[in-house]
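Researcher: Next entry in the queue.
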Amino acid sequence: MSIKKVLVVSYSQTGQLTNLTDSVLFPLYEKKDIEVVIKSIRPKKAYPFPWDFMTFMDHFPESIYLDPPEIEEIEDDENDYDLVILPYQVWFLSPSLPITAFLKSEYAKKKLKDKPIITLIGCRNMWVMAQEKMKILLKELDAKLIDNIVLIDQGSSFSTFFTTTRWMMTGKKDRWLGIFPYAGISEKDIKNASRFGWAIKEALELDKEKNDSPLCSGLKAVNVDEKLIKSEQIATKSFSIWGKLIRKVGPLGDAKRKPIVMIYVIFLFLIIATIVPLNMLIQTIMRKVNKEKVLKQKEFYAAPSGNTDERMKDFLNNE
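Model: Structure for this entry, 319 residues:
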């Protein structure tokens, strides 16, 4: 059997995405006839962690418009990869700027063309619109998306609004005030993500990556929260309108942008406090009225891997 070559390209700001990726890749290292090549994306201007609030918010126009930052050139190689895995974070309902920059690089144009792609997302909870943008970026490269795996932060949407924000702004992810859980994806979920690696390993052994069909179906790869779909769509529209205005004022980091960014922040918090609760109530009613439409939406956004779990017993805790 010839050696299967797997390319992994990612950027991890906090290290969590690296841990998640390592869990998925662990089973692949068990096989001598699978070679894993990891390439790290290195922005020429490093992103801060923890963020300060205004610097973070100043990045939303470029994130929403997929305006790539400069990154260090990725060293080329002669490998013809059988499979590509792209772990990424979500920034402002878009793929993070570093992964966007990679996907617009010459290396990506050369290496991803006609290749089967698995995307691996680690985020708070909203990822649907980011993955739709990712689909467009991959299509422009003539790459073939065969799987999408999503792990989200532990806790409710209410609690992660605070725990994730605190983590981003202070670097602290411990339990907070006796009521909020640890920030980020749970250690158990990260450990159990190895099930995807075992499924990928078996699929590579059987040449299934050549079929342009999912390798991780039946493993509960994604969970589409129907309550968040409309919120993501509305927020994306808002980001687009305000982002266009802010980009006209000046480039990223320009002091002239700060007053407009601050106005948008105030506007955003007012919307979250007033319009969002009302919209959630309306959407709850609409979902009950349009059950079939909601099911079709969930099925569409869950593709290609889906959210079923019939293969979990075969690959979970397979060490």
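Model: The chain is about 45% helix and 15% strand.
Researcher: Noted, moving on.
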